[in-house]
Write a structure and sequence with these properties.
Length: 346
């Protein structure tokens, strides 16, 4: 029905020729055919997300930029297949409230959360005791803290098990991605962040565990691919046949191992859990500061080790704010971006 892109006009035009969507929007620039989107800029995202013929909105926007479209879609009663975890981290209260009030529904595309959803579907919320999200550990799992702090962009982008965009790949190397996922899980499944544990699992075969009040633990298992989480977000709670899927083979999966997260190796992850503990606007500030720090690292303006420093300094200066209003969340986001830039320059 509707397709939008940020700035890749050529790829968007190619997809338009293949799928003939009724609506096309380009955030940065105008589309090939003089734009069927009436609105330029980010307004086209909201227009696409609230289009009357749209039933499911797949939000794969990176970062805080995806928030407005998510809120608009949920208020319009749509299902949002959410790959944009930053939205839930920065404005979890607002997003869950928009879903309640508008009759919309959030279904995770994030593989760990899709795994949890598959384990808890059909169970009552009161039966869930704890979640354990798995983390591959990224490319620096076996490196010493000193070497990690000096890692290059190329080294950080070499993810061992998943092929993903640059921002999330750096977030996987710092383990910030997992901190964001802890906060994301607490909002998606209405559990306290203390009930969400993380374990390093280098093979990325088990995507999450769900522990129930009777001590039983279910896990969702499969070779790492985003195809299943995307498909399940579209068909949930139903399952549809996928003839192209690589069949699971326990022998080929080999030995599965698990390790505790070493906080000294992943200080940015520790900062993320601290932001979760504080609640309020702290997660929004953590997320915004991280977006700035990751971009500075990708632009080779700061070292890998400085990402955690910047997060610590921004959280250290976080003031009080209101996480229950959009104005409050956006103010916290802007303040954290300013503080992060300042921290990077000093
Ligand atoms: Mg994930």
């Amino acid at each position: 029905v509707a397709l939008t892109a940020h700035s890749n006009r050529d790829l968007l035009a190619e997809q338009e020729r293949e799928w003939h969507p009724a609506f096309v929007g380009l955030v940065n620039g105008s589309t090939e055919h003089g734009a069927r989107s009436k609105n330029g800029g980010t307004a086209c995202l909201v227009e696409a997300a609230t289009h009357p013929d749209v039933k499911i909105v797949v939000n794969g926007i990176v970062g805080a930029a995806g928030l407005e479209a998510t809120l608009a879609a949920l208020k319009a009663g749509k299902r949002v297949a959410l790959a944009n975890k930053e939205t839930l981290v920065m404005a979890g209260e607002l997003v869950t409230r928009a879903a309640r009030e508008g009759g919309g529904e959030i279904v995770p595309v994030d593989s760990e959360h899709s795994a949890v959803l598959q384990c808890v579907t059909g169970r009552r919320p009161t039966e869930l005791a704890r979640l354990i999200l798995t983390a591959s550990g990224g490319p620096f799992r076996t490196w010493g803290p000193e070497r990690v702090s000096q890692a290059t962009v190329a080294e950080a982008l070499k993810h061992p098990t998943w092929t993903m965009g640059k921002k999330i790949t750096v977030d996987s190397a710092t383990l910030v991605n997992k901190a964001l996922e802890v906060i994301e899980a607490s909002f998606l499944f209405a559990v306290e962040y203390e009930q969400v544990d993380v374990v390093i699992h280098p093979q990325s075969v088990i995507h999450a565990f769900a522990e129930f009040v009777d001590g039983s633990v279910l896990a969702q298992v499969g070779f790492p691919t985003m195809e299943l989480p995307i498909l399940y977000a579209l068909t949930y709670p139903d399952r549809v046949p996928d003839s192209g899927v690589r069949r699971f083979d326990p022998v080929a999966a080999g030995t599965l191992t698990f390790e505790a997260v070493q906080l000294d190796r992943f200080p940015a992850y520790a900062m993320g859990r601290e932001a979760a503990r504080r609640g309020g606007i702290a997660p929004a500030m953590f997320n915004a500061a991280n977006e700035v720090a990751v971009q500075l690292f990708l632009d080779e303006k700061i070292s890998f080790g400085r990402i955690a420093d910047i997060l610590e300094r921004v959280l250290g200066r976080a003031s009080a704010g209101d996480a229950t209003t959009l104005t409050g969340v956006l103010a916290a986001d802007a303040e954290a971006r300013r503080l992060a830039q300042e921290a990077a320059c000093s």
